[in-house]
Amino acid sequence: MTGRARERFRLLDRTEAALPDEVAALHLEARREVLAEMRTIIEEGVSRGEFRPRDERLAALSVIGMCNWVAWWFHPGSSHPAEPVADQLAQNAVDMLSYPEGAGSPVTAPHCALQMARENLDYLERFLARSPVTTQARHRPAERHRATR
Fold this sequence. Notes:
Blueprint: H1 3-15, H2 21-47, H3 56-73, H4 82-97, H5 110-130, H6 135-147
Helix pairs in contact: 2-3, 3-4
């Protein structure tokens, strides 16, 4: 982020509540688009097995917040270039979302596969809690399974 872009971002962030309605609507739409795009990236990473299952909205907001906060504390200069900071922030985001390094493939390491299964079950439970499926319908497959034993 250049110095001018950083200052514009900070000004927008500080005055957001006082924006004219038309500008506020455009700003809100842009923020929602960024959040939706970040959620999509995280969902795709989870579905490919690259990221741990997490609440996508919370994870996306965490990454976005981490990136936005840079405008308040980072002041680039010749002795403090932006690239290493950007690289570190990107790595922090990936580390937050991905499986721990050295844990092995969840497919080949039994303890990792078990952890992945637990995380996937947690993710599935959160997903089902948000869906309009009734509690009775959720229990039917388990009842059918018991009946076939």
